[in-house]
Amino acid sequence: MAEGTHLYGDRAPHNLEYVVLTVSDNLTSERVLTGTANQIALTDNGAGGTVVLSLPQDIDTAADVQFATLTLNNTGLHLLDTNASHDLIIAPGSDLTADRTLTLTTGDADRTITLSGNPTLGDWFDQSVKVATSPTFASLTLGVNGLDVSPGSDIDADFITINVTGTPTLSWDESETEFTSNVGFGITGVVRSSRVGFGFAQSLDISGGDSSGIYITGRSVDGAEKTLYIRNFSNDATPGTPNRIVFQLGKPTVPITGLIMNFSGNVGVGIEPQARLHTKGVANVIQLLVEAHSTQTANIVEIQKSDGTVYVNVTGAGILQTTQGRISNTTRVTTTYTVLAADHVVYCDTDGGAFTATLPAGVEGTHYKIINCGSSGNSLTIDGAGAETVAGSATQTLIDAEVLELHYNATEGWW
How far apart are CA 233 and CA 213, in angstroms? Predict the structure, then answer.
């Protein structure tokens, strides 16, 4: 059929009224325009109409598109942010060995997931953490409000138990209001308790930094603070080094008024000890008192050698005994002298001339030995204090090499 042929009846209409058929040298065979199911729909609107190509749904930027499934390449799904300035990209983070399904169940309500840092859902939800479950954690860090455990109505059983390899090692018994440990117990930091006790089958180990330890504090009826505390803190004189005090009973005051034990095992009363037993008076009272039993027969006090040999002892009857002899204090004077309470043997050298040695006021049981050690013929006069007599006289006189040994009795005076 020649180009521009007009068809009538069983032939096509002419020119612009309907369809103009022409011959194309590019076609090698007959072509047919058809649609594809679920992809492209082909609609012929009949005579005088148009042929329309369309998709199963709108896919413009404002459309609400729905697919049964959607596969994207592994560069991810791009979602515009709230002001449409940047994309949020959701992309896979690992290789899969098969197709996997991520299911989000919201329930019948709007939900929001807020992410901070780089959390993984596997870390959060690899076990149930609901109220009625018993989750297991490798470790647990609590905030400033601490741990609040409520036992409910059952207070007969332990409601806090710490197990090591299945064996209870530390438990809290509400019915007894106490902690019980079956092994050594180590605490770092500060433990404060006002109403409960601690029971330990083996040991209690408390360690801390510059100012920590264990403090047990109470108050007496007069309001004075009474304390028992164990401490290990920096020495003011040498910052950063441990203080020698490891145990103190009494108020944490300076000067120290209580009982102290240091790292060397020395014990001090009122002072940090410099010897195995070190006491320091804080008032004009008896500083060391050893009170015997009402039926005491054994020695009250003993000073022994390391092999058990007794050097000094006070018997049950109160008699002071020594086994190694005694060394008395000696004093040498060359002129007028007042004998001191601390003196015992007084050597008076009269070679430079005669002089007087005056005794102190007599105290029951006091004993002095006074010697005129001169060799020049000068005399030594011994005088009592005030009206006190010496061997029945106001004074006694010693010539060269004479010795006078005196004891004081409150009734008889110096003899």
Answer: 9
pLDDT digits (tens, 9 = 90+) for 92-101: 888 999 998 8
pLDDT digits (tens, 9 = 90+) for 356-410: 999 999 999 999 999 999 999 999 999 999 999 999 999 999 999 999 999 999 9
- Cβ neighbours of 259 (radius 10 Å): 16
Reported as a single tens digit per residue, the pLDDT across 133-147 is 878 877 777 777 766
The boundaries of the domain holding residue 43 are 1-57
| Vertex 171 angle, CA 126 and 152, to 5° | 75
Let me know whether 272 and 234 are in one domain.
yes
Domain boundary among 149, 180, 207: 207
Residue 171: which of 190, 153, 189, 151 has the closest Cα? Answer: 151
- Is 397 found in the same domain as 339? yes
Q: Is 348 inside a domain boundary?
A: yes
146 falls within a domain:
no
CB 234 within 8 A of CB 243: yes
In a domain, 29, yes or no: yes
What's the whole-model pTM score? 0.43
